[in-house]
Write a structure and sequence with these properties.
This protein has 383 residues and is mainly α. The chain has twelve helices and two strands.
């Protein structure tokens, strides 16, 4: 699977592994800051910012945030359904004879195009059904990619090709894509759409803040299990659908426990310095989870999922502890220092958006890892 960490041994660090990892963090973080400065900084002075105005907090959402998650969704669709073996990249490098940097740029531009295709489809097709989807600034353009990221990645990580193993691989990808898209629409219609409607047309199942908080808590557990833990101990269950059922149970129940702990902690103001109300605290579970998600990917892809030399129980415990500590420290630094002093977001807690910058950093981590092969800081082994 494209997001699993078994590719980490194919390239080697250019310098000492610890030095290389630290340099990778500062490089990706600095690149995220630079892109934020160009497109996202609310106090941006540059012409490009004044032209596109991607950072636009309104009652209907954040355009910069929506495009980031549309892009992440497009990357996941490409890596999991369109070209999971990265054959097009190999074709570009061998047949057209361009280097990895140029091939990565081509793949990046393809994903940008795919992002706009997704946005256009939602506006032109879904927008005909409901006005919630008429504009990229609408909050639906954050919710749809968020649910899509969960569904497409979840099915790829844990259900693999069941029950289609005997079919042609391209047929499998197409059928799985349509099945996952159906699940996306179902989840959105069941949980998100009623919470967004203001005319009482649909009965609300759960508050929107609670849904977002729980969704990202499940995604965090999903990444911990499938990427940081390398599917341990699920690899003992060899057959489908049993592995998928067990993984689904662990992620959904574990995500709920994680969500409840974070929601209760937020209610007690352990994570909040400004407490705007209990319902917002439910979403704060997602605010913490986005840091866990980013650091889980960073640790698995850029730190070789260290430690690896001990028994798996100890390895998993140490990795998880490190990622959770880094996530909580990042959360603290973001809300106390980074958001106001560097990102120039609003001084009010409920108007700060860790999803915007963390999502940007996560997108850079994935693209630099998968498309560019971490060139510059890592190199392919000889032979």
């Amino acid at each position: 699977m494209a997001f699993k960490s078994n590719e980490r041994k194919k390239i080697i660090p250019r310098f000492n592994p610890i030095t290389t990892t630290i340099l990778a963090f500062f490089f990706t973080f600095a690149l995220a800051l630079f892109i934020w400065w160009l497109l996202g900084d609310p106090k941006g002075k540059l012409f490009i910012w004044k032209t596109f105005r991607l950072y636009n907090i309104t009652g209907t959402g954040n355009l910069f945030l929506n495009y980031i998650f549309l892009f992440i969704l497009s990357v996941i669709l490409y890596l999991q359904f369109i070209d999971p073996e990265m054959k097009f990249k190999a074709f570009l490098m061998t047949q057209i004879e361009i280097d990895e940097k140029e091939a990565g740029l081509v793949l990046f531009l393809l994903n940008v195009a795919l992002m706009f295709v997704i946005a256009g489809y939602i506006i032109l097709v879904w927008g005909k059904v409901n006005s919630l989807f008429n504009r990229v600034t609408d909050f639906s353009f954050f919710l749809i990619p968020s649910i899509g990221i969960f569904i497409y990645l979840f099915w790829s990580l844990y259900w693999e090709h069941w029950p289609l193993e005997g079919l042609n691989k391209n047929t499998i990808r197409i059928l799985q894509f349509f099945w996952c898209t159906f699940l996306l629409v179902l989840l959105y219609a069941w949980f998100a759409l009623p919470a967004q409607s203001t005319n009482g047309e649909f009965k609300q199942v759960i508050s929107l803040n609670a849904f977002i908080g729980y969704l990202y808590s499940v995604i965090a557990v999903m990444l911990l299990l499938g990427v940081l833990w390398e599917n341990w101990p699920l690899e003992r269950v060899k057959n489908q659908p049993y592995q998928g059922i067990l993984a689904s149970s662990i992620c959904l129940v574990g995500g709920y426990v994680f969500y409840v702990i974070l929601a209760l902690a937020s209610t007690q103001s352990w994570f909040l310095w400004e407490n705007p109300g209990g319902d917002w605290n439910l979403r704060n579970a997602a605010n913490v989870s986005i840091f866990v998600i980013s650091w889980a990917y960073f640790w698995a892809a850029y730190c070789y999922n260290w430690p690896n030399e001990y028994n798996m129980k100890f390895n998993v415990f140490v990795r998880t502890l490190i990622v959770l500590i880094l996530a909580l420290l990042s959360y603290y630094v973001y809300y106390i220092y980074l958001s106001d002093l560097i990102l120039h977001e609003s001084s009010h807690f409920y108007e700060k958006l860790p999803f915007a910058f963390q999502g940007l950093w996560l997108a850079i981590l994935i693209v630099y890892d998968k498309y560019f092969g971490r060139i510059g800081l890592w190199k392919k082994p000889l032979g």
